[in-house]
Every structure is written in C-alpha cells, then in structure tokens.
Amino acid sequence: APQQQGGRQRESAPGGQEDEPRGASPILTPSPVNEPEPTQPAVAPMHRSGDLPDPVGPRSWDGFVEYVATAEVEGKPTQIRQAKGTIIGHSLTITCASRFLCRTLQEPATLASLTGFAKRYFGEDTEIRIEEEDRPERKSYKQLQGEAEANPAVRKVLDRFSAIIESVTPRSEQ
Predict the structure, then answer these.
(1) Mean pLDDT score of the chain, rounded to an integer?
(2) How many CB atoms are located within 10 Å of the residue 92 CB?
(3) For residue 30, what are the contacts with CB-CB under 8 A and spacing of at least 6?
C-alpha cells in the first residue's frame, strides 16, 4: 500500500518491502490530494466538430478544401490544398504526393483538426484515411542514358553528326 511521507506517496513492493535499494533516496510522487481538476478539455476546441462553422457549398473534396481554408479558426490544416481527396460513403481518403505531406497530415494535432473539419463537413460518422500516392519508381540517370543511347532515332542523330549525349533529364523535370 502507498505510504504517506510529507504530503507525497511512496510506493511499496508487495509484502511491505520497499522497492528501492537499501540506502537509496525514496521515489516520491505527488499526492492526488489537493490537485485541481483539469480545466481544459483533452482536445482543443478547434478540433471538435461542433465548434467549427456551419459548412456551405457542395459536399466534395474541392468544397471541403475551401471550407477549411475559409474557416476562421487557428491551427486549421491548410496543407490539404496540396493533397487530393475522395469521399466514398463515410470514408474520406486523402492522397498525398509526398511522404513529407503524409507525415505532416498525420501529426496528432493536425489529424485531430482535420478529423473535426471532416466530421463537421461530411457528417459525424466520417472516417479519414491518409495515404501516399503510388508513383512509379524513378529511373536513374544511368538508366536514362542507356535508354537514350539504345533509341534508334537518337543513335542515328549521334552517328550522323558525330555527337555525344552530354546529359539526360527525365521528362517530368523539363
């Protein structure tokens, strides 16, 4: 049973033996007596869907993004503008183009805020899933160089003008 010592409790091991080595300082924990009750809710008010403004506009991803952007609350997840979303039934799937954006949206405070907005906008039974966009694996510059050199049209130009390929760039970076 806990023993009182100067307004604080010290835990004892079963059998009445103290669970600390002989000669060691006792481990003290604050006594629950006289502790004030927490006055703040476990979740900040901006995260509760009832505290958010009434939604307006179409119940679509674009409408949701606009709803979040125009809400006058602190800590709103404005990063969702960089993502894509689909709502099917009561499930909102947010697809991120980068791992960084996914991690950002999955941070506890951001996810709680996002969930509050989604429940207010789409309905209280809305569930959120955040996933990273499937993208094909990027080819290395060596692979791109090899493909360019193997291309018959490129080979013809190289031969005709006694040219060399100086560099290659993926089309998405041009």
Answers:
(1) 77
(2) 23
(3) 8, 9
